[in-house]
Design goal:
The complex is a heterotrimer of chains A (about 650), B (about 100) and C (about 170).
Chain A lengths: L2 H21 L5 H25 L11 E10 L2 E9 L1 H24 L6 H20 L3 H19 L6 H32 L4 H10 L8 H15 L8 H4 L5 H10 L1 H11 L1 H4 L17 H21 L4 H21 L3 H28 L17 H15 L5 H13 L3 H26 L6 H4 L6 H16 L5 H9 L13 H11 L1 H22 L8 H5 L1 H7 L4 H50 L4 H20 L1
Antiparallel strand pairs in A: 1-2
Helix pairs in contact in A: 1-2, 1-4, 2-3, 2-4, 3-4, 3-10, 3-15, 3-20, 4-5, 5-6, 6-8, 8-11, 8-13, 10-15, 11-14, 11-15, 13-14, 13-18, 13-25, 14-15, 14-17, 14-18, 15-16, 15-17, 15-20, 15-21, 16-18, 16-20, 17-18, 17-23, 18-23, 22-23
Chain B lengths: L4 H21 L3 H26 L3 H31 L13
Helix pairs in contact in B: 1-2, 2-3
Chain C lengths: L1 H21 L6 H21 L3 H26 L11 H25 L13 H9 L3 H21 L6
Helix pairs in contact in C: 1-2, 2-3
Classes of the chains: A mainly alpha (about 650), B mainly alpha (about 100), C mainly alpha (about 170).
């Protein structure tokens, strides 16, 4: 089969599933789940076939297969409904469909008994469709369309339990926060289109390669605007506030959307349009104070700040899903930072491995929550190692991968990012601190929630989840271990045309692949391991003795409270919005009271009234006055007409 | 200076203005009425003059009708004034201002 | 000769009209009525100068006779003397004179400028014969309609004169 056909099939399958479930099988929960799982499984198989049939993952940069039909021509804007196949999208295809399949299977168990089972799978399928659309999109406009679709489906999924006010609010918050980012994204697209006259990635890349000055003064601004889209979707500072709240959605959703795929879309978009950020810094006159700062600097520092801040917040959370959410934030910051350090392949690599182990961690957390009857507070857990053995061991694998312990996949991808950051010492130090914090909060989670003695009756009566939930855990655990030396990084390097791809083309066998980081960037590798060790040591010191309460707040004092309360970002935003709102309302009130009601309504009535009162005086009832006025009027009229 | 149409018209204009003056100045309804009659007669004079100088008899016929209508109007108007006087004991316009706001 | 007569009649008519409306010596309605009669008479003279003999006769008969008798009759009936006791409203008088003066100025300038009588000579002989023919031939219907009008006026007067008018 032609690769193009396969790509169209991959894209169409989840859409058909979503439509089919919504239209026909909504009443039948089991059938709906079967349709959805079958669709995503078929999409996965098709993806594998596609990768196998189309030159595998190792496609040189600049070479890609584009299958497109003309969609619309409006004036100078020509948009194709196009699919683009290169190693970047191939890797993402495998990742998205693979993780998606695991999560679909897992959901069959986790969501069992929910009254809206079919709706859940319809939403999941719609989400898969949108996500695959982003992955395969060959131009900015199409990507933006699917980008918005992802926003809508994530709204549906976060607010899945919409009868809970918290979930409904979280869905709204996620949607609105994303809107801000998307606005920037759209402006960026328009800026690019206005300057270069095309929205197609390949055309843009060629145009910019031929003439790096083509965007003129808008080069950096367009980059930053496009990055704003990623800021919203990938929950980067300062638009990060929606992601932790989005944990109100069902756990598989958290795993799928808020760990593996949707939030990764921002990073994927950055990698896809990386050619836009490489340009030399150039700002319009009015933004002259930014001169010298490139779009990449903005991206790198946003990523760095996000990752540090989120890691600090994660340290003091007590909700198991929120810890993972902040961890996701932190890791996304890592990826963005890697892109900002001009190494998008490192960010993408981490994105893929992170998709596996963060999905694993979320599903493991879901399994714990499921076993404890929806208890999410880690201080009410404990002693789950013997009661939930599969969950425990797979969760531990995910934790080790996230902490970057070799030979788990996280080590390799994180090492890539650290190596990328070596050129910027401040960011490098920041990344190391984040690595230490990551280990600390992950082992805090493991030690408090899973080991030790049960702190709660529910924890002591926990039972292992059904096997439909455990098998995805096992698969993802395997993937988390081995994703590190599958050669994904090489594929990505080639796909993105990065320098150095040829140097590390040959792994020279399994063992060489395992120890490769120590050879090519020893400083980053050793310091990264050192940071991980410190994090683990601190976590073990504090939580190794299985305390009943968190000993950290007493040691850190007010800082701990700030971490727990997320540095009061939500409060600050609420205050800001309230102030803006109040000011706008005051202005509107003033306009309404004085201009509309005062000047127009009352003014008109008043003018009529005054005119009436004044004219009334003319009507004296005296015949002579009338005669005089009539005569005077006649004289004046004659004077004007005749003379 | 040879007397022509303009002279008659000027006399007519003067009479008309004086009639209007009477209507505006005098406060006795009856005298105001006389002013009105003067204005009508001024119009009559103009019509007759036009009739003679334009060699058209219609002007004189118009005057004839005007005189008739004026007679009818005077009789009705005076009857009204009498009726009003009986009701108000006055024929002064200043005493007859009930038609107002 | 006729020109002299014109000036005599015209000047007297204007003077009497002035005395009718603004007699400086008396504000009695009776005086006004009598000066109005005189105005009518001089007007009739002007009509004669215009060779409108029938109209002149009618003017004397109807106006100076019937209408003025009616006026005097009403004046006597109502015993109107009050106006004499009242003061002139200075503002009203001033405004009235200005307005009337303005009107007169407008009319006079229009008449003088238009040269309405340029090239026209007094030709028409308004004989009673011609007038009667026109009245009973071309203007028969208006003539009859006016008679109806007079009838209606008479009925109205009778109705208004009833004492128990409510």
């Amino acid at each position: 089969m032609q690769p193009e056909t396969l790509a169209w099939i991959i894209l169409a399958l989840p859409l058909l599933s979503a439509a089919g479930i919504t239209l026909f099988t909504r009443r039948n929960a089991g059938l709906s789940a079967a349709v959805s799982v079958t669709a995503v499984a078929a999409a996965f198989v098709a993806s594998v076939l596609l990768v196998l049939s189309y030159r595998g993952l190792h496609i040189p940069a600049g070479e890609c297969l584009i299958a497109s039909v003309n969609w619309l021509n409006v004036g100078g804007l020509s948009v194709e409904l196009g699919l683009r196949l290169d190693s970047l999208s191939n890797v993402m295809l495998l990742g998205v469909t693979g993780v998606g399949l695991m999560i679909h299977i897992y959901s069959c168990g986790y969501m069992a008994g929910d009254p809206s089972y079919a709706r859940f799978f319809a939403s999941l399928s719609l989400f898969m469709f949108s996500m695959l659309g982003i992955v395969l999109a060959s131009n900015f406009v199409m990507m933006f369309v699917f980008w918005e679709l992802v926003g809508v489906s994530s709204y549906l999924l976060i607010g899945f339990w919409f009868e809970r006010p918290a979930a409904a609010d979280a869905a709204k918050k996620a949607f609105l926060t994303n809107r801000i980012g998307d606005f920037g994204f759209l402006l960026g697209i328009i800026a690019v289109w206005a300057s270069l006259g095309t929205v197609d990635f390949l055309d843009l890349q060629r145009a910019l390669a031929a003439d790096p000055q083509a965007l003129g003064a808008f080069a950096s601004l367009a980059g930053v605007l496009v990055f704003m889209g990623a800021m919203g979707k990938s929950a980067q500072f300062p638009l990060h506030v929606w992601l932790p709240d989005a944990m109100e959605g069902p756990t598989p959703v958290s795993a799928l959307i808020h760990a593996a795929t949707m939030v990764a879309a921002g990073v994927y978009m950055l990698a896809r349009s990386f050619f836009l950020f490489e340009l030399a810094p150039a700002w319009p006159e009015s933004l002259g104070f930014l001169s010298g700062i490139s779009a990449l600097d903005v991206i790198a520092w946003t990523g760095g700040i996000t990752s540090l801040m989120a890691a600090l917040m994660a340290v003091q959370q007590s909700d198991i899903k929120r810890i993972l959410a902040y961890s996701t934030l932190s890791q996304l910051g890592y990826m963005v930072m890697a892109v900002g350090c001009a190494r998008p392949e490192a960010g993408m690599y981490h994105l893929v491995t992170h998709a596996f182990f963060k999905a694993l961690l979320f599903l493991g957390a879901g399994s714990v929550i499921h076993a404890l009857h929806h208890e999410q507070d880690i201080w009410k857990m404990g002693g789950l190692r013997s009661r939930l053995p599969v969950t425990y061991w797979t969760f531990l694998v995910g934790t080790l991968a996230l902490c970057g312990v070799p030979p788990f996949s996280g080590f390799y991808s994180k090492d890539g990012i650290l190596a990328a950051a070596e050129t910027r010492p401040v960011l490098f130090g920041l990344a190391l601190v984040v690595a230490a914090l990551t280990t600390f909060y992950m082992f805090r989670l493991v030690l408090v929630a899973l080991r030790g003695e049960p702190r709660d009756a529910a924890a002591s009566h926990a039972h292992e989840s059904p096997s439909v939930m455990l098998w995805p855990l096992r698969f993802l655990a395997i993937a988390s271990v081995f994703a590190g030396f599958w050669g994904i990084d090489t594929a990505l390097k080639r796909g993105l045309g990065m320098a150095g791809a040829s140097g590390h083309e040959d792994h020279g066998g399994f063992l060489a692949g395992v120890f490769e980081p120590f050879g090519h960037a020893p400083l980053a590798a050793f310091l990264g391991l050192f940071a991980t060790g410190i994090g683990f040591a601190v976590a073990w010191t504090l939580y190794g003795s299985h305390p009943v309460r968190d000993p950290l707040p007493e040691r850190l004092g007010p800082l701990a409270r700030w971490m727990r309360d997320k540095f009061y970002f939500d409060e600050a935003y609420a205050w800001l919005i309230r102030c803006t709102h109040d000011a706008l309302a005051a202005v509107a009130d003033w306009v309404d009271r004085w201009i509309v009601a005062g000047m127009f309504v009352r003014g008109l009535a008043g003018a009529t009234d005054v005119a009436g009162r004044a004219l009334r005086l003319v009507l004296t009832g005296n015949l002579q006055t009338y005669a005089f006025l009539a005569a005077a009027g006649m004289v004046v009229a004659l004077w004007i007409v005749v003379l | 200076m040879k007397v022509g149409l303009e002279h008659y018209l000027l006399i007519s204009a003067g009479l008309f203005s004086l009639g209007l003056l009477g209507v505006i100045l005098r406060r006795n309804l009856l005298v105001m009425y006389m002013g009105l009659e003067l204005m009508l007669n001024a119009a009559n004079l103009a019509l007759v003059a036009f009739s003679r100088y334009n060699k058209n008899l219609d002007g004189q016929l118009m005057v004839f009708f005007i005189i008739t209508v004026a007679a009818a109007e005077v009789s009705v108007g005076l009857a009204l004034i009498v009726a009003l006087y009986r009701r108000r004991q006055s024929a002064h316009v200043e005493d007859l201002t009930s038609l107002k706001f | 000769m006729t020109d002299v007569l014109f000036y005599v009649f015209g000047g007297l008519a204007l003077a009497c009209a002035f005395m009718t409306v603004a007699n400086p010596f008396s504000r009695s309605p009776v005086a006004s009525a009598l000066f109005l009669v005189l105005t009518m008479v001089w007007l009739a003279g002007l009509f004669v100068l215009l060779h409108a003999f029938f109209i002149a006769a009618v003017q004397i008969l109807v106006y100076a006779g019937a209408v003025m008798v009616l006026f005097l009759f009403v004046i006597m009936l109502l015993d109107l003397k009050e106006e004499e006791r009242r003061h002139w409203n200075r503002f009203g008088v001033g405004a009235g004179f200005i307005t009337v003066g303005g009107l007169l100025a407008v009319l006079a300038t229009t008449i003088v400028r238009s040269h309405a009588g340029a090239g026209l000579t007094p030709e028409l002989e308004g004989t009673t014969h011609a007038l009667g023919l026109a009245l009973f031939q071309r203007y028969l219907l208006p003539f009859e309609a006016v008679s109806v009008l007079l009838l209606v006026g008479m009925l109205g007067v009778i109705l208004l004169s009833r004492r128990d008018l409510k």
